[in-house]
Amino acid sequence: MTHKGPPDADALDELESDSDYEDGAPHEAPQETAPTESGHYRLNETAKALAALAREGLLGNGLLKASVGMLIRQASESQHWHNCAHFRSQDAAALIRAANLKTAFQYQAWCRTNLRHEHVVPNSVVYKMLCTQGLTEADKIAELLKNFCLRATITLEEDKKLTDAGYSSRMPEGFDLLRPTNPLARYVAVGLGDKLDKRPEGKLWHEVQ
Hints:
Oligomer: single chain
Distance between the termini: 51 Å
Strand order of the largest sheet: 2-3-1-4
Helix content: 40-55%
Number of domains: 1
């Protein structure tokens, strides 16, 4: 089967926004428990769905753009949102500590209003990676999603710094879609690479304020 390359950039608009889905989705009160294996299960099931589309040559089909984008977006997400983001900036952490948040619900509500929840590698870039690499095996796609479908909580100022540098929806020059390396390349490019902390495994952020 001949593999088609990624669609034009103009065809990826529906994959760009990180905040639209969060704002449009129903928000249940976050559970107080730490993330479980359910997140990994969702990622693996998403990988199977993407692999099935890829084998049928449908991954890059423009009519399925929004559906594929949602699958990529949800691969790493859960109802915990900010509370289970893979990374959090140190400046965001300082603001959170000053807010003296006690519960997971308070944490999520405050962060949603005052901070930025975003995908470390823009969804449109993950989409291009999948198309460019021509992956059709679920385990390979799952590995890519695990390594690059990551989320971060950052300050509004840090988000503006990324946007002003032109990295709101793209990776820096030199990020190889065929052989991608550092998922934090956008942050490194604007001087934020050493200002992100990784969430301790098995913990929610409000537990380690």
